[in-house]
Amino acid sequence: MEGTEVAVESVTDVGPSTVAIELATPADFDALPGQFVVLRAAPEGEEITRYYTLSSPTVEDTFEITVGVDPDGDLAPWLADREAGDSVHIDGPFGAVTYEGETDVVAVAGGPGIGPAVSIAEAAHAADKRGAVIYQAAEPAHRERLENLEANGVTVTILEEGDDDGLETAVADHLEGGQYYVFGFEDFVTQVAAAIEDAGGDADEALIENFG
Predict the structure, then answer these.
(1) How far is residue 25's CA from residue 7's CA, in Å, rounded to a whole number?
(2) Measured between alpha carbons, how far apart are the two ends of the chain, in Å?
(3) Where in the sequence is the domain holding 12, given as residue range(s)?
(4) Peptide bond into 93 cis (omega under 30)
């Protein structure tokens, strides 16, 4: 199998049908919040490849990915059943959407985009920068980390799925809050970009990761 073999350190439930998988950091793996890895595994003998954006603010000894688990999926249920000492293969890191601790941030997440969004907000807080998280989901994940961020002065807005007015209002309220980072599926990121423009901002200046 291609890629670098890495050990699973832990698998933790972080929300409905969502797990955080902590992996041992391989040598020379120098990733920044916002970047992603290619994960390879062969649950039934045939290699499957998926892309996962990092959900940890650092990668010094371990790093984390957040996985939404569809019970009918061909890889995610297998990943959710891993235990410490198991292994997967990765390539990367990849991606030009990165955070280097130099600016205030507004991290906007739709559904599975919460992983990288919360990692960027945590990295900004660690760098003594201001941060905000806007998160829209049917079943929110990473609530504990979001509560910790809020307790440390980060503004956290959680919206129900389909609350378009709430999303537009939150985007407008934070228009001057810092560098915009947007993570989610195509319909969501397109909606956020339009909301930025409608509020008088420039969507071209936002760093957007479209999950397809």
Answers:
(1) 8
(2) 26
(3) 4-94
(4) yes
Which residue from 25, 55, 39 is spatially nearest to 89, judged by alpha carbons?
39
Query: Is there a single domain that holds both residue 119 and residue 146?
Result: yes
pLDDT in tens, 145-192: 999 999 999 999 999 999 999 999 999 999 999 999 999 999 999 999
pLDDT, tens digit, 9 for 90 and up, residues 38-52 = 999 999 889 999 999
Are 123 and 101 a contacting pair, CB within 8 Å? yes
Sort 56 into a burial class: Cβ within 10 Å, 0-12 / 13-18 / 19+: buried
Residue 38, in any domain of the structure = yes
Mean residue pLDDT of the chain comes to 97
189 and 109 inside one domain: yes
Half-sphere exposure of 40 (CA within 13 A, CB side): 12
Does this model's pTM top 0.70?
yes
DSSP letter at 113?
G
Question: In whole angstroms, what is the distance from residue 38 CA to residue 92 CA?
Answer: 6
Residues 46 and 48: their CA atoms lie apart, in Å, by 6
Residue pair 135/121 in contact (Cβ under 8 Å)? The answer is no
pLDDT of residue 1 exceeding 80: no
Q: Who contacts 164 (Cβ-Cβ below 8 Å, separation ≥6)? A: 191
Tally of structural domains, the chain: 2
Beta strand 36-41 pairing with 48-53:
antiparallel
